[in-house]
Amino acid sequence: MHKKLINFLTSGKLFSKTEKRLTEFFNMLGGLTSFSVRFFKELFLPPYEVEQIRKHMIELGMKTLPIVGVTGFIIGLVIAMQLSPVLKRFGAEAFLPGSVGISIVRELGPVICALIFAGRVSSGIGAELGSMRVTEQIDAMEVSGVNPFRYLVVTRIFATTFILPILTVYVIFISLIGAYIAVVLVQNMTWAYYIDRVIFAVEFGDAIPGVAKTFVFGYIVGLVGSYKGYTAENGTEGVGKASTSSVVVSSLLILIFDMVLVKLTLWIWPTVK
Amino acid sequence: MMVEITDLHKSFNGNLVLDGVSFTVSEAENMVVFGRSGTGKSVLLKCMIRLMEPDAGSVFIQGKDVLKLDLKDLNELRKDIGFLFQGAALYDSMSVRENLEFPLIRNFELDKKEIDERVNFVLEAVSLLDVINKMPSELSGGMKKRIGLARSIITKPKLMLYDEPTTGLDPITAKEISVLINDLQHRLKMTSIVVTHDLLCAKIIADRAIVLSDGKIVKEGSINELITSEDQLLKNFFSDEIFEQNGSKK
Fold first, then answer.
1. Residues near A132 by beta carbon (within 8 Å), at least 6 away in sequence
2. Cross-chain residue pair B89–A137, CB shorter than 8 Å
3. pTM summary value
4. What was the ipTM of the complex prediction?
5. What does residue B212 show for φ and ψ, rounded to 5 degrees?
6. Is the peptide bond before A47 cis (omega within 30 degrees of 0)?
7. For residues B75, B76, B78 and B81, what is the CA-based torsion angle, rounded to 10 degrees?
8. Cα–Cα distance, B173 to A272 (Å, whole number)
9. Given an 8 Å threshold on Cβ–Cβ distance, is B79 in contact with A145?
């Protein structure tokens, strides 16, 4: 076993595999960047595909609405159930609505919603465009004098960028309902009082950055899904890969950008004055 | 001259697929490009309309240097070119009607009545008026090819490019498609380039044929000249084709 490991390490296979993976990674980063640049270039050029954008927004929004709703409700309920005994331990039960509200509005609502959206939508876009690529439908579009990038990619990225914030507001609301149900199970609290406490605790500096960062998450979901699908190759195997890697890459990018954006928003809107 | 191709080169990762291909096609002529799988037939068609960028050479269509056109002029030229893809490439998310209307709505300012007339005309031409509201997933392979053909002629192109129009079809349907293509060619007076390895299809359609091998044109002439040629490569190629079609060697 030990010998096998040494042989493997010295055979150069490890290096060549790592080198291959790194090359693929940097190729993908370069591809995403040039795709992004092309998106902003084409976005402002006519013809504007308003009808396609509207169609995608409705379709993607409706497709994700039930799953993000259920997830949001459960997350709100669980967070309140988890926080309740902890706050009780410190004699701070009165802060339960406020702390639940802040965690949902600032972080859990936007990120959970974006991750679910990535799983549902990014893979769908990757598979759909990938399938269009390998069956030459994108080529057919190009031959008929239509710019497939503008028709298929720009419209989808635009739609995901603007539908995710709307979904996030919905998820936050549903999560707060879930949290309220958990709160009334342990405390005697009216809905009006609960909402009043949440509104009292959640400040402008909590709500706006929380929702605003979902524009970036939505953009990432559309960009990665479209890029993976549009550049898919090798037949049906390529479509599967495009779909799977869309979810992995967009989820990872959402978490990385979340980290950066949290730091940025704390700098712009400090929570402690 | 409708098409003039000179010294076209294309390679993928050092693998030369087109190695100095040159030929011309006159107006209203039906040219067939023969060759085994992987000899660069489809690549040739795609390079002609810049779905792929060739490494070197020139392509003139209707006197325009295709490789030097900007995107706007290229799209303008593409309106005069129809392309039937190997798998028909119908848009999955659109019905047959929407598939047919798509190139018209996007490229021409036609009123609803005129669009309907054109849709009905091409569907009638391919004998599939009854599938107008169906989705591509509800159609058979032969029907998809016919609708693909209808979509490519709906813009009244001057040049038609066919990429393996009979591949994947049973012999009877393949013959029907070939006869249909030939019929449409004569009715609409289009120039066409057909890439195929189906001898029967070529016999029905071709005015002239070229044979591609290892990225080069190895023979040019009428179908009968090619079939009766003493060239060993052609003998091998056509004997295999005849064997495939008849199920036995003749």
1. A138, A152, A229, B91, B92
2. yes
3. 0.86
4. 0.87
5. -100, 135
6. yes
7. 170
8. 76
9. yes
